């Protein structure tokens, strides 16, 4: 027999239901935003402790689907039970009878879904102890496009995990993220809804992947893993591409589903005809990826004193001098703001200094390339 413990708390007007529950059951909620009543459900694991900041994962459904269907078929609840995070499954707005996410004025829609999802984070945070440095977004198809829009236009998400969607061409050409954002993407080569090669309005998956590899300053040569074909009857195999060496240890990952359709690996929908890879579970892989990252990880740099290069003076107001402790040449220098903006970049056969006299005072992240290794350190310009 399964026993649910429900704690009745005072009413909160932002929630359509009359209580908040800390239990192993989903809770429905709604609030008015920008003239619309927006609905969602969320799942709180039994392990939730109100004294402990807890990660938050937002799951975004595809066009014509719903938050309830995303919860049912992409089911993060068993993972939340063991990993202790809160899972939120919001509903998109409705157009022509179908729920969707308006990531860039689709068909003239003026619905502000980015504002809604940021308000949703705040709403949940008003009643639960959410770790604001560990908020993540995942989604399928149209929800995947929305995840990319969130990464391009907000500073709330520590990482995104996307399936069967991409970046629109406009998004690809104009995305200017405010911070480094690790990203995992899963896509089938036989996806007929959002083709792997892209379309006139959608960036191809390899191009979108390279965008995030470059944004996170990862090595462009991946480590390649062939996923074990544990289900040889599913009609698909999977290859994982791991890009490492990014700023703050960020990585980018791509799961290429060879023969896979417009589907969520490990989560088939009854009656669907598109091929679903069953060799791994996409939900588990997405959380495995998310669990590595949080916002503002640069603070940990101060704890690591074993750098392989020295820089002086630090702080400086005019010029920094560099020297490799192993006498290897420094061939690249990049200076980033703490929000992830590239401020300065220098390439040479052997860099021994760079000027900072025209750069605004503050703390920055210095990334240098020695041999084929990237190293980072915090510097101060006064």
Can you characterise this structure?
This protein folds into 2 domains: 26-295, Alpha/Beta hydrolase fold, catalytic domain (Rossmann fold), CATH 3.40.50; 300-381, Sandwich (Immunoglobulin-like). Helix content is 18%, strand content 31%. The chain is α/β, with parallel strands linked by helices. The chain has helices at residues 67-73, 77-83, 113-127, 142-153, 169-174, 205-215, 282-290; strands at 26-33, 36-43, 54-60, 86-90, 93-95, 98-100, 130-140, 159-163, 183-188, 223-226, 237-243, 252-258, 309-312, 319-324, 330-337, 342-347, 353-355, 362-370, 373-381. The model is unreliable at 1-23 and 298-306 (pLDDT under 50). A 10-stranded mixed beta sheet has the order 1-2-4-3-7-8-9-12-11-10, with helices on both faces. The protein is globular. The protein is built from 7 helices and 19 strands.
């Amino acid at each position: 027999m399964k026993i649910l413990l429900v704690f009745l708390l005072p009413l909160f007007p932002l929630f359509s239901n009359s209580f908040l529950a800390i239990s192993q059951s989903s809770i429905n909620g709604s609030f008015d935003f920008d003239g619309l009543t927006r609905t969602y459900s969320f799942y709180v694991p039994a392990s939730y402790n109100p004294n402990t900041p807890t990660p938050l994962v937002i799951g975004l459904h595809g066009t014509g689907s719903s938050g309830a269907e995303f919860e049912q078929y992409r089911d993060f609840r068993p993972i939340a039970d063991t990993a202790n995070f809160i899972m939120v499954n919001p509903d998109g707005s409705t157009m022509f009878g179908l729920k969707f996410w308006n990531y860039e004025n689709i068909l003239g829609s003026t619905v502000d879904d980015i504002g809604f999802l940021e308000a949703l984070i705040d709403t949940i945070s008003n009643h639960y102890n959410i770790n604001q440095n560990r908020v993540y977004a995942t989604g399928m198809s149209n929800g995947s496009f929305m995840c990319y829009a969130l990464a391009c236009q907000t500073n709330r998400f520590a990482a995104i995990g996307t399936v069967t969607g991409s970046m629109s061409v406009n998004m690809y050409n104009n995305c200017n993220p405010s911070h480094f954002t690790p990203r995992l993407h899963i896509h089938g080569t036989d996806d007929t809804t959002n083709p792997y090669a892209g379309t006139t309005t959608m960036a191809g998956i390899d191009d979108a992947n390279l965008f995030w590899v470059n944004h996170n300053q990862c090595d462009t040569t991946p480590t390649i893993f062939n996923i074990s074909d544990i289900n040889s009857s599913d009609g698909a195999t999977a290859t994982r591409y791991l890009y490492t060496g990014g700023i703050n240890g960020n990585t980018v990952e791509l799961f290429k589903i060879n023969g896979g359709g417009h589907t969520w690996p490990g989560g088939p929908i009854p009656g669907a005809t598109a091929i679903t890879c069953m060799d791994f579970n996409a939900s588990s892989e997405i959380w495995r990826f998310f669990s590595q990252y949080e916002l503002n990880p640069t603070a940990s740099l101060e704890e690591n004193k074993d750098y392989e290069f020295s820089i002086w003076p630090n702080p400086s107001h005019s010029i920094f001098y560099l020297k490799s402790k192993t006498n290897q040449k420094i061939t690249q220098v990049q200076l980033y703001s703490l929000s992830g903006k590239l401020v300065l970049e220098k390439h040479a056969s052997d860099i021994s200094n760079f000027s900072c006299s025209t750069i605004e005072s503050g703390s920055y992240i210095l990334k240098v390339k020695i041999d084929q290794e990237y190293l980072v350190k915090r510097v101060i310009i006064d």
